[in-house]
Amino acid sequence: MAAEDGRKNIVIIGGGIIGCTSAYFLTRHPSYDPNKHKITLLEATKIAGGASGKAGGLLALWAYPSSIVPLSYLLHKQLSDEHGGEARWGYRTIHVGQVDCRGRALERKSESSVKGKDGEMDGGNGPTKVERNGEAHVSLQKRSKEAMAKLSAAGMPKELDWVAPECDPVYDEMGDPSTTAQVHPFQFTTAMAELAAEKGVDVRVGSSVTDIGYGKKGGVESVTYKDGKNGGKKETIPATDVVIAAGPWTQSVYPPAPIAALRAHSVTIRPSRPVSAFALFTHIKLPPKEKKTNGSKFFSRGQSEEIVNPEIYARPHNEVYACGEGDRLVPLPASTNLVECDESRCQDIVDHVSAISDELRDGEVTARQACYLPNVNAESGGPLVGPTGTKGLWIAAGHTCWGIQNGPATGKLISEFVFEGEGRSAKCRGLDPRNVL
Ligand SMILES: Cc1cc2nc3c(=O)[nH]c(=O)nc-3n(C[C@H](O)[C@H](O)[C@H](O)COP(=O)(O)OP(=O)(O)OC[C@H]3O[C@@H](n4cnc5c(N)ncnc54)[C@H](O)[C@@H]3O)c2cc1C
Protein backbone atom coordinates (compact mmCIF):
# COMPACT_ATOMS: atom_id res chain seq x y z
CA MET A 1 0.00 0.00 0.00
CA ALA A 2 0.99 3.64 0.00
CA ALA A 3 4.12 4.94 1.69
CA GLU A 4 3.54 7.31 4.62
CA ASP A 5 3.35 10.41 2.40
CA GLY A 6 0.90 8.58 0.09
CA ARG A 7 3.45 8.34 -2.71
CA LYS A 8 3.63 5.07 -4.54
CA ASN A 9 6.52 3.46 -6.35
CA ILE A 10 4.81 0.84 -8.48
CA VAL A 11 7.03 -1.68 -10.26
CA ILE A 12 5.58 -3.99 -12.91
CA ILE A 13 7.62 -7.08 -13.78
CA GLY A 14 7.06 -8.18 -17.41
CA GLY A 15 6.18 -6.39 -20.63
CA GLY A 16 3.74 -8.89 -22.10
CA ILE A 17 0.09 -7.98 -22.57
CA ILE A 18 -0.63 -8.32 -18.85
CA GLY A 19 2.19 -6.04 -17.71
CA CYS A 20 1.37 -3.50 -20.44
CA THR A 21 -2.40 -3.38 -19.79
CA SER A 22 -1.63 -3.09 -16.06
CA ALA A 23 0.64 -0.13 -16.80
CA TYR A 24 -2.01 1.43 -19.06
CA PHE A 25 -4.89 1.13 -16.56
CA LEU A 26 -2.75 2.26 -13.62
CA THR A 27 -2.20 5.54 -15.50
CA ARG A 28 -5.98 5.83 -16.13
CA HIS A 29 -6.98 5.23 -12.50
CA PRO A 30 -8.57 8.33 -10.90
CA SER A 31 -6.03 8.22 -8.05
CA TYR A 32 -3.00 8.22 -10.33
CA ASP A 33 -1.01 11.44 -10.18
CA PRO A 34 2.20 11.43 -12.22
CA ASN A 35 3.66 14.09 -9.93
CA LYS A 36 3.14 11.89 -6.92
CA HIS A 37 3.35 8.30 -8.11
CA LYS A 38 6.10 6.58 -10.08
CA ILE A 39 5.34 3.56 -12.26
CA THR A 40 8.20 1.53 -13.71
CA LEU A 41 7.74 -1.40 -16.09
CA LEU A 42 10.73 -3.74 -16.23
CA GLU A 43 10.91 -6.02 -19.28
CA ALA A 44 13.74 -8.54 -19.61
CA THR A 45 13.96 -8.76 -23.42
CA LYS A 46 11.44 -6.89 -25.55
CA ILE A 47 7.84 -5.72 -25.23
CA ALA A 48 5.57 -8.55 -26.43
CA GLY A 49 8.59 -10.77 -27.09
CA GLY A 50 6.79 -13.84 -25.67
CA ALA A 51 3.28 -15.26 -26.17
CA SER A 52 1.79 -11.76 -26.19
CA GLY A 53 3.45 -11.09 -29.53
CA LYS A 54 2.88 -14.56 -31.02
CA ALA A 55 -0.71 -15.40 -30.04
CA GLY A 56 -3.71 -15.60 -32.33
CA GLY A 57 -5.59 -12.64 -30.89
CA LEU A 58 -9.10 -14.08 -30.76
CA LEU A 59 -11.55 -12.35 -28.39
CA ALA A 60 -14.73 -14.19 -27.46
CA LEU A 61 -17.60 -13.68 -25.06
CA TRP A 62 -17.58 -17.44 -24.47
CA ALA A 63 -13.93 -17.51 -23.37
CA TYR A 64 -13.08 -18.21 -19.72
CA PRO A 65 -13.12 -17.36 -16.83
CA SER A 66 -16.61 -15.92 -16.99
CA SER A 67 -15.89 -13.55 -14.06
CA ILE A 68 -13.76 -11.26 -16.23
CA VAL A 69 -14.52 -12.16 -19.86
CA PRO A 70 -17.49 -9.80 -20.44
CA LEU A 71 -15.65 -6.87 -18.82
CA SER A 72 -12.53 -7.52 -20.86
CA TYR A 73 -14.44 -7.96 -24.11
CA LEU A 74 -16.13 -4.60 -23.52
CA LEU A 75 -12.85 -2.90 -22.58
CA HIS A 76 -11.29 -4.13 -25.84
CA LYS A 77 -14.07 -2.38 -27.76
CA GLN A 78 -13.72 0.80 -25.68
CA LEU A 79 -9.93 0.86 -26.05
CA SER A 80 -10.29 0.44 -29.79
CA ASP A 81 -12.86 3.24 -30.02
CA GLU A 82 -10.73 5.58 -27.91
CA HIS A 83 -7.36 4.97 -29.52
CA GLY A 84 -8.19 4.01 -33.09
CA GLY A 85 -7.62 0.30 -32.50
CA GLU A 86 -8.95 -0.68 -35.93
CA ALA A 87 -6.05 1.01 -37.65
CA ARG A 88 -3.53 0.73 -34.82
CA TRP A 89 -3.88 -2.91 -33.74
CA GLY A 90 -6.29 -4.54 -36.18
CA TYR A 91 -9.34 -4.67 -33.90
CA ARG A 92 -12.37 -5.98 -35.75
CA THR A 93 -15.33 -8.24 -35.14
CA ILE A 94 -15.28 -11.60 -36.92
CA HIS A 95 -17.06 -14.87 -37.54
CA VAL A 96 -15.71 -17.93 -35.77
CA GLY A 97 -16.47 -21.48 -36.81
CA GLN A 98 -15.47 -25.06 -36.46
CA VAL A 99 -14.61 -26.65 -39.80
CA ASP A 100 -14.54 -30.45 -40.16
CA CYS A 101 -13.04 -31.55 -43.46
CA ARG A 102 -10.71 -33.85 -45.36
CA GLY A 103 -7.21 -32.63 -46.11
CA ARG A 104 -5.79 -33.05 -49.61
CA ALA A 105 -2.47 -34.77 -50.24
CA LEU A 106 0.03 -32.10 -51.20
CA GLU A 107 3.49 -31.88 -52.60
CA ARG A 108 5.58 -30.15 -49.94
CA LYS A 109 6.96 -26.90 -51.29
CA SER A 110 10.71 -26.50 -51.53
CA GLU A 111 12.34 -24.90 -48.46
CA SER A 112 13.32 -21.79 -50.41
CA SER A 113 9.73 -21.02 -51.33
CA VAL A 114 8.37 -21.38 -47.78
CA LYS A 115 11.10 -19.57 -45.85
CA GLY A 116 10.03 -16.38 -44.06
CA LYS A 117 11.50 -13.04 -44.97
CA ASP A 118 14.75 -12.02 -43.29
CA GLY A 119 14.12 -10.60 -39.87
CA GLU A 120 10.65 -12.08 -39.64
CA MET A 121 11.70 -15.58 -38.73
CA ASP A 122 11.65 -16.02 -35.02
CA GLY A 123 12.81 -18.28 -32.29
CA GLY A 124 16.11 -18.52 -34.00
CA ASN A 125 18.09 -21.53 -32.74
CA GLY A 126 17.47 -23.69 -35.77
CA PRO A 127 15.53 -26.90 -36.21
CA THR A 128 15.35 -29.36 -33.36
CA LYS A 129 14.52 -32.97 -34.14
CA VAL A 130 11.78 -34.12 -31.77
CA GLU A 131 10.29 -37.47 -30.89
CA ARG A 132 6.52 -37.66 -31.18
CA ASN A 133 5.57 -38.92 -27.74
CA GLY A 134 2.75 -38.35 -25.25
CA GLU A 135 3.96 -34.85 -24.39
CA ALA A 136 4.38 -33.79 -28.00
CA HIS A 137 0.76 -32.83 -28.67
CA VAL A 138 -0.97 -30.96 -25.89
CA SER A 139 -4.21 -29.09 -26.52
CA LEU A 140 -4.12 -25.35 -25.83
CA GLN A 141 -7.70 -25.85 -24.56
CA LYS A 142 -9.29 -22.92 -26.29
CA ARG A 143 -12.05 -25.25 -27.51
CA SER A 144 -13.57 -25.65 -24.03
CA LYS A 145 -16.92 -27.35 -23.34
CA GLU A 146 -18.52 -23.89 -23.24
CA ALA A 147 -17.05 -23.03 -26.63
CA MET A 148 -18.21 -26.30 -28.17
CA ALA A 149 -21.71 -25.73 -26.79
CA LYS A 150 -21.93 -22.73 -29.11
CA LEU A 151 -21.74 -24.92 -32.20
CA SER A 152 -24.72 -24.62 -34.47
CA ALA A 153 -24.85 -26.19 -37.88
CA ALA A 154 -24.96 -23.15 -40.12
CA GLY A 155 -23.85 -24.55 -43.46
CA MET A 156 -20.71 -23.30 -45.19
CA PRO A 157 -20.97 -19.48 -45.35
CA LYS A 158 -20.48 -18.26 -48.92
CA GLU A 159 -17.93 -15.65 -47.77
CA LEU A 160 -15.74 -18.48 -46.49
CA ASP A 161 -14.50 -19.20 -49.97
CA TRP A 162 -10.90 -19.95 -49.05
CA VAL A 163 -11.50 -23.48 -47.79
CA ALA A 164 -11.34 -25.80 -50.82
CA PRO A 165 -14.74 -27.33 -51.65
CA GLU A 166 -13.15 -30.69 -52.53
CA CYS A 167 -12.26 -31.03 -48.83
CA ASP A 168 -16.01 -31.49 -48.09
CA PRO A 169 -16.00 -28.89 -45.34
CA VAL A 170 -18.77 -28.87 -42.75
CA TYR A 171 -19.07 -25.56 -40.90
CA ASP A 172 -20.51 -25.08 -37.42
CA GLU A 173 -20.79 -21.53 -36.17
CA MET A 174 -19.18 -20.71 -32.80
CA GLY A 175 -19.36 -16.94 -32.90
CA ASP A 176 -20.49 -14.02 -35.02
CA PRO A 177 -19.60 -10.32 -34.94
CA SER A 178 -21.84 -9.83 -31.89
CA THR A 179 -19.78 -12.29 -29.80
CA THR A 180 -16.33 -12.60 -31.34
CA ALA A 181 -13.59 -10.18 -32.38
CA GLN A 182 -9.84 -10.06 -32.81
CA VAL A 183 -6.77 -7.92 -32.32
CA HIS A 184 -3.20 -8.23 -33.55
CA PRO A 185 -1.57 -9.17 -30.21
CA PHE A 186 1.88 -7.70 -30.88
CA GLN A 187 0.44 -4.40 -32.11
CA PHE A 188 -2.06 -4.23 -29.23
CA THR A 189 0.54 -4.96 -26.54
CA THR A 190 3.11 -2.49 -27.86
CA ALA A 191 0.37 0.16 -28.22
CA MET A 192 -0.60 -0.36 -24.57
CA ALA A 193 3.04 0.14 -23.55
CA GLU A 194 3.31 3.31 -25.66
CA LEU A 195 0.05 4.75 -24.30
CA ALA A 196 1.18 4.01 -20.73
CA ALA A 197 4.57 5.63 -21.40
CA GLU A 198 2.81 8.76 -22.75
CA LYS A 199 1.16 9.14 -19.33
CA GLY A 200 4.41 8.79 -17.43
CA VAL A 201 5.25 5.08 -17.11
CA ASP A 202 9.00 4.48 -17.21
CA VAL A 203 9.32 1.46 -19.56
CA ARG A 204 12.75 -0.15 -19.19
CA VAL A 205 13.46 -2.82 -21.80
CA GLY A 206 16.45 -5.15 -21.25
CA SER A 207 15.85 -5.13 -17.49
CA SER A 208 15.66 -8.63 -16.04
CA VAL A 209 14.40 -8.78 -12.46
CA THR A 210 16.48 -10.99 -10.16
CA ASP A 211 15.03 -10.20 -6.71
CA ILE A 212 12.09 -8.68 -4.93
CA GLY A 213 13.24 -7.11 -1.64
CA TYR A 214 11.09 -7.24 1.50
CA GLY A 215 11.19 -4.87 4.47
CA LYS A 216 11.40 -5.74 8.17
CA LYS A 217 7.61 -5.62 8.45
CA GLY A 218 7.29 -8.13 5.60
CA GLY A 219 5.96 -5.87 2.83
CA VAL A 220 7.72 -5.26 -0.48
CA GLU A 221 10.47 -2.67 -0.38
CA SER A 222 12.54 -2.89 -3.56
CA VAL A 223 13.14 -4.65 -6.86
CA THR A 224 16.59 -5.58 -8.17
CA TYR A 225 17.24 -6.14 -11.86
CA LYS A 226 20.10 -6.66 -14.29
CA ASP A 227 20.33 -3.64 -16.52
CA GLY A 228 21.09 -4.89 -20.04
CA LYS A 229 21.86 -1.34 -21.19
CA ASN A 230 24.53 -1.05 -18.51
CA GLY A 231 26.47 -4.27 -19.16
CA GLY A 232 24.16 -6.35 -16.93
CA LYS A 233 25.00 -4.27 -13.85
CA LYS A 234 22.53 -4.80 -11.00
CA GLU A 235 20.24 -1.90 -10.11
CA THR A 236 17.89 -1.73 -7.13
CA ILE A 237 14.84 0.56 -7.17
CA PRO A 238 12.44 1.26 -4.30
CA ALA A 239 8.94 -0.22 -4.47
CA THR A 240 5.74 0.21 -2.48
CA ASP A 241 3.89 -2.09 -4.89
CA VAL A 242 5.14 -4.85 -7.17
CA VAL A 243 2.95 -6.37 -9.89
CA ILE A 244 4.27 -9.73 -11.07
CA ALA A 245 3.23 -10.10 -14.72
CA ALA A 246 6.01 -12.38 -15.92
CA GLY A 247 3.73 -14.92 -17.65
CA PRO A 248 5.30 -18.39 -17.75
CA TRP A 249 8.42 -16.98 -16.01
CA THR A 250 6.45 -16.00 -12.89
CA GLN A 251 8.09 -18.71 -10.73
CA SER A 252 11.54 -17.34 -11.50
CA VAL A 253 10.71 -14.16 -9.56
CA TYR A 254 8.10 -15.65 -7.21
CA PRO A 255 8.64 -19.42 -6.69
CA PRO A 256 5.39 -20.13 -4.73
CA ALA A 257 3.19 -19.29 -7.76
CA PRO A 258 1.94 -22.57 -9.33
CA ILE A 259 2.47 -21.45 -12.92
CA ALA A 260 3.76 -23.82 -15.59
CA ALA A 261 4.74 -23.30 -19.22
CA LEU A 262 3.56 -24.99 -22.42
CA ARG A 263 5.36 -24.39 -25.73
CA ALA A 264 3.35 -23.72 -28.89
CA HIS A 265 4.35 -23.03 -32.50
CA SER A 266 2.68 -20.77 -35.00
CA VAL A 267 3.17 -19.29 -38.46
CA THR A 268 1.91 -16.31 -40.39
CA ILE A 269 1.15 -16.50 -44.10
CA ARG A 270 0.49 -13.84 -46.71
CA PRO A 271 -2.27 -15.57 -48.69
CA SER A 272 -2.26 -15.49 -52.48
CA ARG A 273 -5.31 -13.19 -52.36
CA PRO A 274 -7.09 -11.37 -49.50
CA VAL A 275 -9.32 -13.75 -47.49
CA SER A 276 -12.53 -13.00 -45.57
CA ALA A 277 -12.64 -12.35 -41.80
CA PHE A 278 -13.05 -15.78 -40.22
CA ALA A 279 -11.31 -17.54 -37.34
CA LEU A 280 -11.47 -21.29 -37.82
CA PHE A 281 -11.03 -24.14 -35.38
CA THR A 282 -10.34 -27.08 -37.66
CA HIS A 283 -10.68 -30.84 -37.55
CA ILE A 284 -8.80 -32.09 -40.61
CA LYS A 285 -8.55 -35.75 -41.61
CA LEU A 286 -5.25 -36.02 -43.44
CA PRO A 287 -4.73 -38.72 -46.06
CA PRO A 288 -2.30 -41.53 -45.11
CA LYS A 289 1.30 -40.31 -45.14
CA GLU A 290 3.02 -40.35 -48.50
CA LYS A 291 6.23 -42.36 -48.92
CA LYS A 292 8.87 -42.07 -51.61
CA THR A 293 10.78 -44.91 -53.28
CA ASN A 294 13.17 -44.54 -56.22
CA GLY A 295 11.97 -41.04 -56.88
CA SER A 296 8.32 -42.03 -57.30
CA LYS A 297 5.83 -41.44 -54.54
CA PHE A 298 3.02 -43.64 -53.37
CA PHE A 299 0.53 -43.58 -50.56
CA SER A 300 0.65 -46.54 -48.23
CA ARG A 301 -2.76 -48.12 -47.92
CA GLY A 302 -4.46 -49.28 -44.76
CA GLN A 303 -2.78 -46.72 -42.53
CA SER A 304 -5.11 -44.88 -40.22
CA GLU A 305 -5.88 -41.28 -41.07
CA GLU A 306 -4.23 -38.58 -39.00
CA ILE A 307 -6.45 -35.90 -37.48
CA VAL A 308 -4.96 -32.45 -36.99
CA ASN A 309 -6.53 -29.33 -35.47
CA PRO A 310 -4.73 -26.14 -36.46
CA GLU A 311 -6.46 -22.87 -35.54
CA ILE A 312 -6.52 -20.45 -38.47
CA TYR A 313 -7.17 -16.72 -38.03
CA ALA A 314 -7.58 -14.38 -40.98
CA ARG A 315 -6.23 -10.94 -40.06
CA PRO A 316 -6.49 -7.50 -41.65
CA HIS A 317 -3.80 -6.44 -44.13
CA ASN A 318 -3.69 -9.74 -45.97
CA GLU A 319 -2.25 -11.87 -43.17
CA VAL A 320 -3.34 -15.26 -41.88
CA TYR A 321 -2.12 -16.66 -38.57
CA ALA A 322 -2.17 -20.38 -37.78
CA CYS A 323 -1.08 -22.31 -34.70
CA GLY A 324 -0.81 -25.96 -33.78
CA GLU A 325 -1.06 -27.84 -30.52
CA GLY A 326 1.33 -27.36 -27.61
CA ASP A 327 4.22 -29.58 -26.47
CA ARG A 328 6.30 -30.12 -23.38
CA LEU A 329 9.43 -31.34 -25.16
CA VAL A 330 11.67 -28.37 -24.39
CA PRO A 331 11.58 -26.78 -20.92
CA LEU A 332 11.06 -23.04 -20.55
CA PRO A 333 14.36 -21.27 -21.33
CA ALA A 334 15.66 -18.31 -19.31
CA SER A 335 14.14 -15.64 -21.57
CA THR A 336 11.96 -15.04 -24.63
CA ASN A 337 14.94 -14.62 -26.98
CA LEU A 338 16.17 -18.14 -26.15
CA VAL A 339 12.94 -19.93 -27.11
CA GLU A 340 13.69 -22.85 -29.47
CA CYS A 341 11.60 -22.86 -32.62
CA ASP A 342 11.26 -26.32 -34.16
CA GLU A 343 11.03 -25.69 -37.92
CA SER A 344 9.46 -29.09 -38.54
CA ARG A 345 6.53 -28.22 -36.29
CA CYS A 346 6.04 -24.93 -38.14
CA GLN A 347 6.20 -26.80 -41.44
CA ASP A 348 3.52 -29.22 -40.19
CA ILE A 349 1.23 -26.26 -39.54
CA VAL A 350 1.93 -24.87 -43.03
CA ASP A 351 1.27 -28.29 -44.59
CA HIS A 352 -1.93 -28.85 -42.63
CA VAL A 353 -3.50 -25.51 -43.53
CA SER A 354 -2.28 -25.85 -47.13
CA ALA A 355 -4.11 -29.18 -47.28
CA ILE A 356 -7.44 -27.34 -47.08
CA SER A 357 -6.79 -24.00 -48.76
CA ASP A 358 -5.25 -22.99 -52.10
CA GLU A 359 -4.90 -19.40 -50.89
CA LEU A 360 -2.74 -20.54 -47.97
CA ARG A 361 -0.85 -23.18 -49.97
CA ASP A 362 0.07 -20.62 -52.64
CA GLY A 363 0.82 -17.85 -50.15
CA GLU A 364 4.12 -16.77 -48.64
CA VAL A 365 5.09 -17.86 -45.12
CA THR A 366 6.16 -14.66 -43.36
CA ALA A 367 6.98 -15.92 -39.85
CA ARG A 368 7.70 -19.21 -38.08
CA GLN A 369 7.78 -18.86 -34.35
CA ALA A 370 7.36 -20.47 -30.94
CA CYS A 371 6.45 -19.21 -27.48
CA TYR A 372 5.28 -20.43 -24.08
CA LEU A 373 1.76 -20.27 -22.72
CA PRO A 374 1.40 -19.60 -18.95
CA ASN A 375 -0.78 -22.28 -17.32
CA VAL A 376 -1.92 -22.44 -13.69
CA ASN A 377 -1.22 -25.80 -12.05
CA ALA A 378 -4.25 -25.82 -9.80
CA GLU A 379 -7.80 -27.13 -10.06
CA SER A 380 -9.23 -23.62 -10.11
CA GLY A 381 -7.38 -22.96 -13.39
CA GLY A 382 -6.23 -19.46 -14.24
CA PRO A 383 -5.53 -16.67 -14.24
CA LEU A 384 -4.29 -15.46 -10.85
CA VAL A 385 -5.15 -11.80 -10.37
CA GLY A 386 -4.82 -9.97 -7.05
CA PRO A 387 -3.03 -10.05 -3.71
CA THR A 388 -0.44 -12.60 -2.62
CA GLY A 389 -0.85 -12.02 1.11
CA THR A 390 2.43 -10.07 1.25
CA LYS A 391 1.85 -6.33 1.58
CA GLY A 392 2.27 -4.57 -1.76
CA LEU A 393 2.88 -7.77 -3.76
CA TRP A 394 0.33 -8.50 -6.50
CA ILE A 395 0.15 -11.22 -9.15
CA ALA A 396 -1.37 -10.95 -12.62
CA ALA A 397 -0.30 -14.15 -14.37
CA GLY A 398 -1.34 -17.60 -15.61
CA HIS A 399 -3.71 -16.46 -18.34
CA THR A 400 -3.51 -19.77 -20.29
CA CYS A 401 -4.87 -19.49 -23.85
CA TRP A 402 -7.02 -16.40 -23.15
CA GLY A 403 -4.53 -13.74 -22.06
CA ILE A 404 -5.17 -11.48 -25.06
CA GLN A 405 -8.91 -11.61 -24.47
CA ASN A 406 -8.51 -11.07 -20.69
CA GLY A 407 -5.63 -8.57 -20.67
CA PRO A 408 -7.70 -5.36 -20.36
CA ALA A 409 -9.88 -6.61 -17.46
CA THR A 410 -6.77 -7.86 -15.68
CA GLY A 411 -5.07 -4.49 -16.08
CA LYS A 412 -8.12 -2.62 -14.84
CA LEU A 413 -8.49 -4.88 -11.79
CA ILE A 414 -4.78 -4.55 -10.98
CA SER A 415 -5.10 -0.74 -11.05
CA GLU A 416 -7.94 -1.05 -8.51
CA PHE A 417 -6.03 -3.48 -6.29
CA VAL A 418 -3.00 -1.18 -6.23
CA PHE A 419 -4.85 2.12 -5.65
CA GLU A 420 -7.92 0.93 -3.72
CA GLY A 421 -6.88 -2.37 -2.16
CA GLU A 422 -9.53 -4.42 -3.97
CA GLY A 423 -10.74 -5.22 -7.47
CA ARG A 424 -14.10 -3.52 -7.97
CA SER A 425 -14.95 -3.85 -11.64
CA ALA A 426 -15.61 -7.59 -11.56
CA LYS A 427 -16.35 -10.27 -8.98
CA CYS A 428 -12.96 -11.90 -9.08
CA ARG A 429 -12.59 -13.82 -5.80
CA GLY A 430 -12.15 -17.02 -7.79
CA LEU A 431 -8.95 -15.56 -9.27
CA ASP A 432 -7.47 -14.61 -5.87
CA PRO A 433 -3.87 -15.92 -5.86
CA ARG A 434 -4.19 -16.67 -2.13
CA ASN A 435 -6.56 -19.53 -3.04
CA VAL A 436 -3.61 -21.47 -4.43
CA LEU A 437 -0.49 -20.07 -2.71
C1 LIG B 1 -0.10 -20.27 -29.86
C2 LIG B 1 -0.88 -19.38 -28.93
C3 LIG B 1 -2.06 -18.79 -29.36
C4 LIG B 1 -2.79 -17.98 -28.49
N1 LIG B 1 -3.92 -17.40 -28.94
C5 LIG B 1 -4.65 -16.60 -28.12
C6 LIG B 1 -5.84 -15.98 -28.57
O1 LIG B 1 -6.24 -16.17 -29.72
N2 LIG B 1 -6.56 -15.23 -27.69
C7 LIG B 1 -6.16 -15.04 -26.40
O2 LIG B 1 -6.85 -14.37 -25.64
N3 LIG B 1 -4.99 -15.57 -25.96
C8 LIG B 1 -4.23 -16.35 -26.77
N4 LIG B 1 -3.09 -16.93 -26.32
C9 LIG B 1 -2.69 -16.75 -24.91
C10 LIG B 1 -1.90 -15.47 -24.67
O3 LIG B 1 -0.93 -15.34 -25.65
C11 LIG B 1 -1.25 -15.49 -23.29
O4 LIG B 1 -2.18 -15.84 -22.30
C12 LIG B 1 -0.70 -14.10 -22.95
O5 LIG B 1 0.12 -13.64 -23.99
C13 LIG B 1 0.11 -14.13 -21.65
O6 LIG B 1 0.59 -12.83 -21.45
P1 LIG B 1 1.62 -12.50 -20.28
O7 LIG B 1 1.86 -11.05 -20.33
O8 LIG B 1 1.11 -13.09 -19.01
O9 LIG B 1 2.93 -13.36 -20.63
P2 LIG B 1 4.05 -13.14 -21.73
O10 LIG B 1 3.52 -12.67 -23.01
O11 LIG B 1 4.86 -14.39 -21.72
O12 LIG B 1 4.91 -11.94 -21.13
C14 LIG B 1 5.71 -12.10 -19.99
C15 LIG B 1 6.85 -11.11 -20.12
O13 LIG B 1 7.58 -11.11 -18.91
C16 LIG B 1 8.94 -10.93 -19.22
N5 LIG B 1 9.74 -11.43 -18.09
C17 LIG B 1 9.87 -12.70 -17.68
N6 LIG B 1 10.70 -12.77 -16.62
C18 LIG B 1 11.09 -11.51 -16.37
C19 LIG B 1 11.97 -10.93 -15.41
N7 LIG B 1 12.60 -11.67 -14.48
N8 LIG B 1 12.19 -9.59 -15.44
C20 LIG B 1 11.57 -8.81 -16.38
N9 LIG B 1 10.73 -9.32 -17.31
C21 LIG B 1 10.50 -10.64 -17.30
C22 LIG B 1 9.14 -11.75 -20.48
O14 LIG B 1 10.29 -11.32 -21.18
C23 LIG B 1 7.84 -11.47 -21.23
O15 LIG B 1 7.94 -10.40 -22.12
C24 LIG B 1 -2.33 -17.75 -27.16
C25 LIG B 1 -1.13 -18.32 -26.74
C26 LIG B 1 -0.41 -19.13 -27.61
C27 LIG B 1 0.88 -19.72 -27.12
Automatic annotation (TrEMBL):
Where does the UniProt annotation place the signal sequence? Answer: none
Q: Which superkingdom does the taxonomy of this entry point to?
A: Eukaryota
Q: Where is this region: Disordered?
A: 105-136
**A GO CC term?**
cytosol
GO BP, one example?
retrograde transport, endosome to Golgi
Name the residue ranges with Basic and acidic residues bias.
105-120
Q: Where is the FAD dependent oxidoreductase domain?
A: 10-416
Mind telling me which PANTHER family this protein's record contains?
A: OXIDOREDUCTASE TDA3-RELATED, SARCOSINE DEHYDROGENASE-RELATED
Protein's name according to its UniProt entry: FAD dependent oxidoreductase domain-containing protein
Native species of this protein? Extremus antarcticus
Q: What is the lineage of its organism?
A: Eukaryota, Fungi, Dikarya, Ascomycota, Pezizomycotina
